[in-house]
Amino acid sequence: MSQKIAQESPLQSLNRFITTHDESTGKSVFSNAVLEQNPTQVVPGVVFRQGYVTKKFPVQLNGDEDLDAYQSFLKSPPGLVNSSGTVLRIVDLPPQSTSPMHRTVSLDYGIVLIGEVDLLLDSGEVRTMRPGDMAIQRGTMHAWVNKNPTEWARIAFVLQPSEPVVVGGKKLEEDYADMEGVKKSE
């Protein structure tokens, strides 16, 4: 299977609707701080959409500090994880493709939205995931496989910072293998 496909996804583009408060009335309103259409970042093998990124956890919502942080991330997309905040990311995986085997130092919730993907672990274990299925990634080495010969797959991820994982007395570091265009976590 190909691992170095760099192309735009044909799947529907995504909008995000961010809420905030009107300072004078205290009522809920939609923010216009960022465009509603979620931009894409094409990385060989996948298409990323940064739905939202925060710089710290717990998140500071007062004064729209989180919105300011997100705007800075949009200017220069970070690595797979922000080590002190959260990430909402949508990943589109092309037909007949496999992501590099990789590890994030985070607790990741992955939910398949479109298509069918295999979650492959470095032990060789595999689980096939269909729309609505969830993966709870706990700092493990893994890859995503879309075996379909013609259809793209889409997965939504929520990444949260975690303490470093230690196995057998060894601290496990993030490992992005050969993911071109992906920077190390901040």
Q: What would you note in describing this structure?
A:
- By secondary structure, the protein is mainly beta.
- Helix content is 6%, strand content 38%.
- The protein contains 1 helix and 14 strands.
- Mean pLDDT is 86; it is low at 1-6.
Q: Whole-number average pLDDT?
A: 86
User: Do you know the CATH architecture of the domain at 39-164?
Assistant: Sandwich
Write down how many β-strands occur, each being a DSSP E stretch of 2 or more residues: 14
Strand order of the largest sheet: 3-4-5-12-7-10
User: Which spans of ≥5 residues are poorly predicted at pLDDT below 50?
Assistant: 1-6
Span between N and C termini? 31 Å
Structural class: mainly beta
What composes the largest sheet?
6 strands, antiparallel
Query: Which CATH class of the domain at 39-164 applies here?
Result: Mainly Beta
Q: Give the SSE order as H and E letters.
A: EEEEHEEEEEEEEEE
Helix segment tally: 1
Helical residues, percent: under 10%
The H-level CATH homologous superfamily of the domain at 39-164, spelled out, is Jelly Rolls
β-strand amount: 35-45%
From the spread of the alpha carbons, the general shape counts as: globular
- The CATH topology of the domain at 39-164 is Jelly Rolls
For the CA atoms, what is the radius of gyration? 17 Å
Task: Provide keyphrases for this structure.
186 residues, mainly beta, Jelly Rolls, 6-stranded antiparallel sheet, 4-stranded antiparallel sheet, 1 helix, 14 strands, globular, disordered N terminus, RmlC_Cupin_sf
Give me the secondary-structure topology.
Elements: E1 19-21, E2 28-30, E3 40-43, E4 46-53, H1 65-75, E5 87-93, E6 97-98, E7 106-114, E8 117-121, E9 126-129, E10 134-138, E11 142-146, E12 153-161, E13 165-167, E14 170-172
Antiparallel strand pairs: 1-2, 3-4, 4-5, 5-12, 6-11, 7-10, 7-12, 8-9, 8-11, 13-14
Protein name: Cupin domain-containing protein
InterPro entries: OryJ/VirC-like, RmlC-like_jellyroll, RmlC_Cupin_sf
Organism: Karstenula rhodostoma CBS 690.94
